[in-house]
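Thread: quick sanity check before group meeting

JM: Hey all, I'm pulling together slides for Thursday and realized we never actually wrote out the predicted structure for the chain we discussed last week. Dropping the sequence here so it's in one place. If anyone has concerns about the input, flag it before I start.
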Amino acid sequence: MATLAPPRTAPAVTWEISDGIATVVLDLKGQAVNVISRAVKDEFLACFAALADDPSVRAVAFLSGKPDNFIAGADIEEFVALSSAAEAERLSADGQDMLDRVARFPKPIAVGIHGSCLGGGFEFALACHYRVATDHPKTQIGLPEVQLGILPGAGGCQRLPRLVGARAALDMILAGKSERAAKAFRLGMVDELVAPPILAEITLGAAKRLAGGWRPKRKRRGGLLGFLRDGNPLGRRLVFWMARKQVLERTGGNYPAPLAALEAVEYGLRHGINEGLRREAQLFGQLAVTDVSRKLVQIFFATNQLKKDPGVANAPPPVRVQRLGIIGSGFMGSGIAGTAVAQAEVDVRMKDADLARVAQGILAARAILDDRLKRRRITKFEYARLVALLSGGDTYAGFGRAELTIEAVFEELGVKQQVLREVEAVLPASGVFASNTSTIPITRIAEAARAPERVIGMHFFSPVAKMPLLEVIPGARTEPQTVSTAVAFGRRMGKTVIVVQDSPGFWVNRILAPYANEVGHLLAEGASIEDIDSMAVRFGFPVGPVTLLDEVGLDVAIKVAGVMQEAYGDHIQPAPGAGVAALVKAGRLGRKSGRGFYIYEGGKKRGVDESVYGLLGVHPNGGPRPAEILQRLVLGMVNEAARALGEGVVHSPRDGDIGAIFGFGFPPFRGGPLRYADDLGAERIVTDLERLAERHGARFAPCEVLREHARAGTKFYA
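JM (edit): ok, ran it. Output follows.
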């Protein structure tokens, strides 16, 4: 889905007729992408009515007038204006009616797809009679509606299963996935794959063949196994049973859209397409007005706004990064290098103290490309080209041409300052130096710089290839162009970028600190590791706080906790006693060492290591009630988020919530810690925190920002 188009004077749908073939072009003037709005629907219907009545037209070739976009989906502005389930159901039924007219059009329609073909755009393509797509990486095809808390409501839940089989369709619909054209072709979602320069020619040729009576022969994908799964009622029941089980495991029942989409597909295959469309519209209507959908749409808008936010007022244009230097070839450095090559396609030069470590780093960076090749996200030729962009050495040779250099060395101020002094001697005059630090203030690092205006923080999250957030941290003397350059390059790497204040812990680690620290307090009071983690997962976190500590690394967690306690005192307070330090002393560093709170074998978590309790000097004996466990974990985080926002650590509640959701998995259906606070109400939160503070100490004392909202009856979001 995309945003509402500005007022238009020129028509969006135009056509010309030659040799019996009508070439129809969709091009919304004044907007970057094509979307399907009510106005566009009217033009569609008028166009196809005219072509149906024109005896000279024997077939239609449909194309987009946009350079890198087919149809991005339905107009989300119209969707958010819906005020009732009945209104949403009518919107869905209207879309179904339009596409039913396309599907039953008396003359064949061939559609040429280049760029984004998503949601309603793909539903339109499904209703056409022949689909041609380009093999360009920008051609992405799919039905992402469940990511907005709804389902494909214009026939997608009915037509896609009939085209590619229930199993393949459910795999795409229930996860809100989009696929590159090559995979879409293998699945049977498109009929032909071509190079972009000949798309119009091939689509026109297909329309001419269809006009002459030719019809494509489509065979069921998957052979005998595909038939056993999709071609008989018993196999289909098994497919739906397995799909429902997987959805519940993945979502914990917190997201109603995938289950509703599953019902729409199953109902349609059982009762026929007309009944299926009716049920699809009903379910769309019910989902559209849920709080979950509203929260997910708010996240969609927020991330779109961030894509256009340079991160600093009146920012000059960013420097275009073509060459990237990476200092440190360990886990983080190699992750940054591999992701930069895979996403931004820049020339990357790595540096470490010895060549053996550099070689290991290059291999680790290549593993990101290996994975993409294995998953067929890139071709062998693309793989070879991208691998050639990776190089390294044990000197700073090549760094003199790097527009951006990122250090990912040991988290120690002196080490980082020494690296800065060394590399600054060879960087170009306009070269930017970025530190991938998680705790050390950028201003302190920049004290060693000759040009502190070109020093900035770029805090990536581990593992870099998978974690979507990047915190960009300007120092006290960082200039605006340095900020805009870091932000722009982070986006080219596929990251959601927030600009945060240069303060200990920045944003994510700052608000995570009370959440992680509370683990020690709860264990000391007799709570079990399983109870703590399970309550957080039930709330909607992807993993519990104990598992998170193991994932981060217990040695890293101790270092961060020390920095945070020194900076913030009694409101970010670890539990008394040795705590996690005892585990680190025993060589238990978490997943990376095979043992932490949990035992790990073969890269998988195998269960709680019961000997941990003895090392910590605690005994699980029931501890606090489950409801109190959850309240203490979540409200401590909400309190710190409100306090940090009041200090200006992030620019807005929007940035803070997106940082929490993308940085450590705060449940998206709850909207982020600040939206969650608005839902609960500041007065209730302050009352609950005061009760916790009476029982457990100053770390729960409500911050002044929350108290002020409680007194005034106001919210973080207007």
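AS: nice. Confidence is low (pLDDT under 50) at residues 1-8. The first helix runs from residue 38 to 53.
JM: adding both to the slides.
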